[in-house]
């Protein structure tokens, strides 16, 4: 079972990735985690990726593909895996597809968590952070006991700069520009869109059902 998870900032992707990993006993691998592990291991790929990141640049497709290929060859991926944050470009999607074919692995289940921009803006704009301990609250879903004060240390809660509406809209635009072509490349027949505006539990159920159906179908076709 190979799952690719796509969704805009604030859609609850992290929660769903952790849930799917537990439910299907597969590792949830984020590109951030992979880069850090590879850097730490000091492999040639890791060194190249580290120096690109340290210079504030993007890591090139070839390096990212190499790191993913190494990671999914590890024993914990034998029963499948979930990737979060990869592929990030159409050429990466091409290369990933070739890699799966070479290794005799099944085509991925592509999960797209869809949440309307207005909902994401409302969610993210309701976030507050403790000015002291950095704990995150949400005025809608996880409010503090006392309005505007941290439960832990009583310090004032502040809105982070990247949760301002204009910044959120920019991030959503950037996400769409990046991800739209990848979803198009996989095509409507492979991309499974899930309504991410439901409660986290309802989203979990919807994704689980969809993954089970899709893997059954794939098995039937083979
Ligand atoms: Zn605090």
Task: Give the structure's gist in a few sentences.
The chain is an alpha/beta fold and 222 residues long. The protein is built from eight helices and eight strands.
Question: What topology emerges from the helices and strands here?
Answer:
Layout lengths: L1 E5 L6 H12 L3 E3 H11 L2 H11 L6 H12 L8 E4 L5 H13 L6 E6 L2 H9 L1 E4 L5 E3 L18 E2 L6 H22 L4 E5 L4 H22 L1
Parallel strand pairs: 1-3, 1-4, 2-3, 4-8
Antiparallel strand pairs: 5-6, 5-7
Helix pairs in contact: 1-8, 2-3, 2-4, 3-4, 4-5, 6-7
Report what the structure shows.
This protein has 222 residues and is an alpha/beta fold. The chain is built from eight helices and eight strands. It has helices at 13-24, 31-41, 44-54, 61-72, 90-102, 117-125, 165-186, 200-221, and strands at 2-6, 28-30, 81-84, 109-114, 127-130, 136-138, 157-158, 191-195. It has a five-stranded parallel beta sheet, with helices on both faces. The protein has a three-stranded antiparallel beta sheet with strand order 6-5-7. A hairpin with a 5-residue loop joins strand 5 and strand 6. Helix 1 (13-24) crosses helix 8 (200-221), helix 2 packs across helix 3 and helix 6 packs across helix 7. It is globular, with a radius of gyration of 19 Å. The model has no long low-confidence stretch (mean pLDDT 90). The structure holds zinc ion (ZN). Zinc ion binds at residues 130, 132-133, 135, 150, 152-153, 155.
């Amino acid at each position: 079972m190979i799952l690719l998870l796509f969704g805009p900032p604030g859609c609850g992707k992290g929660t769903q990735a952790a849930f799917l990993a537990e439910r299907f006993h597969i590792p949830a691998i984020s590109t951030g985690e992979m880069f850090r592990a590879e850097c730490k291991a000091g492999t040639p790929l890791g060194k190249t990726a580290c120096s690109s990141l340290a210079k504030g640049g993007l890591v090139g497709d070839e390096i990212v593909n190499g790191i993913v290929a190494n990671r999914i060859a590890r024993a914990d991926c034998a029963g499948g895996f979930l990737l979060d944050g990869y592929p990030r470009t159409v050429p990466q999607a091409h290369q990933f597809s070739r890699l799966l074919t070479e290794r005799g692995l099944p085509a991925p289940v592509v999960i797209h968590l869809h949440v309307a921009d207005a909902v994401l803006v409302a969610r993210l704009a309701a976030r507050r952070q403790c000015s002291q301990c950095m704990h995150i609250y949400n005025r809608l879903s996880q409010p503090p006991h006392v309005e505007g004060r941290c439960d832990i240390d009583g310090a004032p809660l502040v809105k982070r700069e990247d949760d301002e509406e204009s910044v959120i809209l920019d991030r959503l635009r950037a996400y769409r520009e990046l991800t739209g072509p990848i979803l198009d490349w996989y095509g409507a027949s492979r991309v499974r869109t899930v309504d991410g505006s439901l409660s986290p539990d309802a989203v979990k159920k919807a994704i689980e059902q969809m993954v089970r159906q899709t893997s059954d179908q794939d098995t039937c076709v083979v």
